[in-house]
Amino acid sequence: MKILPPAMTWLIALFAISNVSRADEPAFETAAAPVFRKYCISCHNDQEREGGLSLVTPARIAAGGEHGSALLPGDAKSSRMIRMMLGKLEPTMPPEGSKGPTPAELEALMRWIDDGAKTEGGTDLTPSKLVVPNLKSRVSRNPITDLRWSPDGKIIAVARYQTVEILDGKTKKPLFQLADHPGKVNSIRFSPDSGFLLTASGIAGLKGVALEWDLKTRSVRRRYANHSDVMYAAVYSPDGRQLATAGYDRKVLIWSRGQDDGDVSRPRWTLVGHNDAVYDLQFSSRGNVLASASGDQTVKLWDAVRGRRLDTLGQPLKEQFVTLFHPRRDFLLGAGRDNRIRQWKLETGNSATMNPLLISRFAHEASIVGLAYSKDGSLLVSSAEDKTIKLWSGDDVELISTLPGQSDVAFGISISPDGELAVGRMDGTIGYYHLPLIDRSGPKKGERMAAEIRPNVAFETRAAIVEESEPNSSPGNAQKIELPVTLKGTLFQKGSQLDADLFEFRARKGETWVFETNAARSKSPADTRIDILTPSGETVTRVRLQAVRDSYFTFRGKDANTSDDFRVHNWQEMELNELLYCNGEIVKLFLYPRGPDSGFKVYPGFGTRHNFFDTTPVAHALQEPCYIVKAFPPGTAVTPNGLRVFDIPYENDDDAERKLGTDSKLFFTAPVDGTFLVKVSDSRGFQGEK
To answer: pTM (2 decimals)?
Structure first.
């Protein structure tokens, strides 16, 4: 047996002692990683970063958060993380109601920090990703999820599950397919030169992928990834040099378009700011601004050159699914689950600024899922989950017409360069429509806006005084009179439970007559009401109102007198001098709210409020519906927009200008030459000899 020298024996002994010491040290993988995975990573990862802190890698841990380092190697008790876990520093961690580390786990973590918080051999702690099998669909129906004409109009791309079909633009016959996409193809876009197609797809909880297809070789040229969940949108910039992607992981990535085949590994910009999935993207016509529509109820504007946020458009009330820039004007559209199309004026260039809301149009009775402009921007098309497709004027978003009923929801709508609309539906069918030209010669006959006629003149009549002659309580026995006239009568008839006095008169088309009662002012207990009827006793319509925006009363209700503090939902999208219809009465907006604790003033802006179209003021309950309305002549065939239409008759209870107390005053303009009835009654249904 060979005997080692004493020096070598000492070295071997030292080596053995060193090994024992290292095995006893608290390691990252056994002391820290289990605590971080179990209690911390859900809120402190690269996506969430609560307090600016991510714990997924050693580098992120060392970087700390908004308050500096979370750990002080060698001093666990002074470390911010441990003090919060021990309840010695606010906010305590984990949050109230969440389970925290056991005493043994906390002791191991503190020993690891005291030992220097070493991370050698530390691994990526990013929350585990899903392993999803590739399941083939067994559904016979193959829904269309998107559809696009190529810029040159020669072909049409149709997105379905895992596949994109390419059709001939003239014959509409299939040419070839681009297959093997991961999951449903959510978005497709042609390159500006029509030579490439960009598709967005992915698998929930696993990945999002954009594939760029060379349409000549029918092969994938480039692949853009870096999304941890399904990708909903992938779009080219107008010059084709950049593209942007976004999806369920809330990130927006801007890429320099790759020059070589294969994967493009790193985006140029990563834009973070949305708090929910991003459903759509659109570059401005100059390519310097990128818009993103999100489930967080906003549309955001980004500087596509410098990679920074420019503005957040926060007026939407619910999730936004689509956004679209006007091809020739500085307008931006957004639409989604709140059934409205909003138009903003794009003031943003390369610096952050306010972009004012111009239009908020109630458009459909369900979520809007598609928007498309014609090439010159003169026509806008919208589709929604109510299975309707509507045509609008491109500049002012005024409704033109509604296409015939669709067999299913149209997620794919696109207009060819020569004005042909292609529609791809969820039932797998495609429809084609040749769009009409817009008549810009002016309003169509009979569709002009109605105006209230209230002559602001003082007049005196020396009309004959006529005594009422009973019976005159029904259209068949109405008392005949000639205008002008002063009538004296009593709302009382023996043997009747309710007396109403009717008088028959003639008027020529366009003549305006004023009917006024003098009861309360003469100390009568009567609370009069005036109605204008046809000879058969039917009401005569004065104006047709179409609701263009729905709302309701917030904070508190309103009595029948107040002209101030009209607090209504979504008031930011209302304009001064718009008509507000509230349970039969019509007021006009006079002054905007002056702060968060105030509401609209309505005309006249002080004192008791005035009404329009001789409607009568009433009290309104909290959360009672109300509507911004437009006025049209009676019988106008207004194009349906999903909101209500109200026909207002000639009637008045209390004078609309509130000058006569409970006495009535009604302006009547005869719609035709003919005979009419004026009816005087008590608004409460009372009668009596006084």
So the answer is: 0.70
